[in-house]
Amino acid sequence: MVIPAAGRGVRLGPGAPKALRALNGTPILVHAVRAMAASRAVSLVVVVAPADGAAEVKNLLDDHALPDRTDYVVVPGGDTRQESVHLGLKAVPDDITTVLVHDAARPLVPAEVVDTVIEAVRDGAVAVVPALPLADTVKEIEPAERPGDPERVVATPVRARLRAVQTPQGFDRDTLVNAHATVALAGEGATDDAGMVEKLGAPVVVVPGHEEAFKVTRPLDLVLAEAVLARRRANDGF
Ligand SMILES: Nc1ccn([C@@H]2O[C@H](COP(=O)(O)OP(=O)(O)OP(=O)(O)O)[C@@H](O)[C@H]2O)c(=O)n1
Ligand SMILES: C[C@](O)(CO)[C@H](O)COP(=O)(O)O
């Protein structure tokens, strides 16, 4: 399991790197690691920390309780998510054949999603994404030619065939390592790991995502995350 956590969180606004910011008094990263460790199938978590913050992240994880069966290592990240995942993958021991990649920025993913993704890989899929249907209609636009000009719509993809993909995404380890090496060599990029596997021409399987697996990206997402935790506490109380 690789958790890229080296991003700055620019869209969340000024402050500490996003993974280290507090959600209900606990760093977002700790929530994310605990969410992964909640699956009994996860034995090792490789956390990819901000390049200048690996020691701080290691101390943080040492200070927060994780299940005994979950081991973790911390490695410094890169300038992009893709680079950070690549660096994390290098720290995964050779005998691990199923690898998950999970954004630290999705701290509330339920264990059932993690288990479903792992099961699909173990059943033979080389790449698996959890995904949800879209609520909004999506337009493809032509970027404005000059600043101040309006963007123009060029197409409206059929919404029923679109999915918003989440993490953890699950992979056959060799396929993911090959995808990262090939895409980096070609100087290409992708905004998620499955996108890199698609560039190899390998099949990617979709499993159900979960609305609580949303990515904390903008300030309102933190408000929503606090509300989800409050709802969980209230439900636990009954
Ligand atoms: N150089 C980077 C950039 C991103 N990430 C990680 O990739 C995940 C998804 O990225 P995103 O939500 O875009 O996080 P940021 O890059 O931090 O956000 P922003 O673009 O607002 O700065 C996050 O867990 C983030 O820490 C990473 O490990 N290394
Ligand atoms: C990997 C991801 O979370 C899948 O939805 C997403 O692509 C990350 O994008 P970002 O540009 O790092 O926010």
UniProtKB/TrEMBL annotation:
Catalytic reaction list: 2-C-methyl-D-erythritol 4-phosphate + CTP + H(+) = 4-CDP-2-C-methyl-D-erythritol + diphosphate
Top-level taxon: Bacteria
Sites annotated Transition state stabilizer: R11, K18
Keywords: Isoprene biosynthesis, Nucleotidyltransferase, Transferase
Gene3D superfamilies noted in UniProt: Spore Coat Polysaccharide Biosynthesis Protein SpsA, Chain A
Keyword Transmembrane annotated: no
Keyword Transferase tagged: yes
Record CDD domains: CDP-ME_synthetase
PROSITE patterns given in the database record: ISPD
Enzyme class name: transferase
E.C. number: 2.7.7.60
Pathway named in the protein's UniProt entry: Isoprenoid biosynthesis; isopentenyl diphosphate biosynthesis via DXP pathway; isopentenyl diphosphate from 1-deoxy-D-xylulose 5-phosphate: step 2/6
GO biological process: isopentenyl diphosphate biosynthetic process, methylerythritol 4-phosphate pathway
GO molecular function (one): 2-C-methyl-D-erythritol 4-phosphate cytidylyltransferase activity
Positions marked as site (Positions MEP for the nucleophilic attack): R159, K215
Family to which this protein belongs: Belongs to the IspD/TarI cytidylyltransferase family. IspD subfamily.
Family annotation (PANTHER family): 2-C-METHYL-D-ERYTHRITOL 4-PHOSPHATE CYTIDYLYLTRANSFERASE, CHLOROPLASTIC
Function: Catalyzes the formation of 4-diphosphocytidyl-2-C-methyl-D-erythritol from CTP and 2-C-methyl-D-erythritol 4-phosphate (MEP).
HAMAP family in alphabetical order: IspD
Protein name, UniProt field: 2-C-methyl-D-erythritol 4-phosphate cytidylyltransferase
